[in-house]
Design goal:
The protein has about 240 residues and is of the alpha/beta class. About 30% of the residues lie in helices and about 25% in strands. The chain is built from eight helices and twelve strands.
């Protein structure tokens, strides 16, 4: 049974608009392990986009649109963020940014249908840098994401002890006091004094959950601090095995 904390909370959103949330995305608060996560993330997506054709990359929770650099020159980029930089149209990189809360974006079915029509279905949606793990009600959000017709990629903190120690160091540096660590077979959750909760999900748990929405795992990268999963919407011809890094 899922933890109640996986559903129906609205605390993290407010914190991400406050000082602690701003610090979480500032490079001067990135620890060595966080930078390692970012480096592995960039390599994974560069390789993924070399072996899979997409015409549009959507980064949900884009912050300063860090992953725009992994796309090919002729790809378009759309960043979604609750508190993005002022620029809405990026001068370089065929990119644009929408100021929008992530849940609301995935409820905009007309916009999503138009995106799929314009790009002939060749769209990859990325949830970067443990974005899923810091959402309020992450399993409800994931279900909404999986109802969209996009292929999906996720960047996740690992559930390893090394990753947990790295997360504790990172949040402490950002001024977020972790009061408790909850470990289950499916996740490691950090409970913080300000009500913030941050999950690191087991990849097999997510694979099984996402597969119920008609996805198949196409590629994966597993590291001590972080994991990366790439899913495609299943079709009759989709029977090739997963490639793991």
């Amino acid at each position: 049974m899922d933890s109640p904390a996986l559903h129906s909370r609205q605390v993290n959103r407010a914190i991400y608009l406050g000082d602690e949330g701003i610090r979480l995305m500032r490079p001067n608060y990135f620890t060595t392990q966080v930078r390692q996560f970012h480096d592995c993330e960039r390599v994974f997506y560069l390789d993924l986009l070399c072996s899979n054709r997409y015409d549009l990359i959507i980064e949900v929770g884009c912050s300063c649109y860090r992953l725009i650099g992994v796309k090919k020159a002729d790809n378009d980029y759309l960043g979604i963020d609750i508190n993005p930089p002022r620029a809405r149209r990026l001068k370089k990189g065929n990119g644009a940014v929408i100021r929008c809360e992530a849940n609301k974006f995935f409820k905009r079915t007309r916009l999503i249908d138009e995106i799929m029509r314009r790009y002939d279905g060749r769209v990859l949606c990325i949830l970067p840098f443990n974005f899923l793990g810091t959402m309020d009600a992450p399993m409800e959000f994931l279900a909404r994401v999986c109802q969209a017709p996009f292929d999906l990629a996720l960047s996740l903190f690992s559930t390893s002890e090394t990753a947990t120690v790295a997360r504790l160091e990172y949040y402490n540096l950002c001024g977020i006091n972790v009061q408790g660590v909850v470990r289950t077979d499916d996740y490691v959750r950090l409970d913080c004094s300000n009500g913030f909760q941050a999950f690191a999900f087991d990849p097999l748990f997510l694979k099984n959950r996402i597969s119920t929405f008609g996805f198949r795992l196409n590629e994966a990268g597993y590291y001590d601090v972080c994991n990366f999963l790439h899913f495609k919407k299943s079709g009759p011809e989709d029977c090739s095995p997963c490639k793991a890094n």
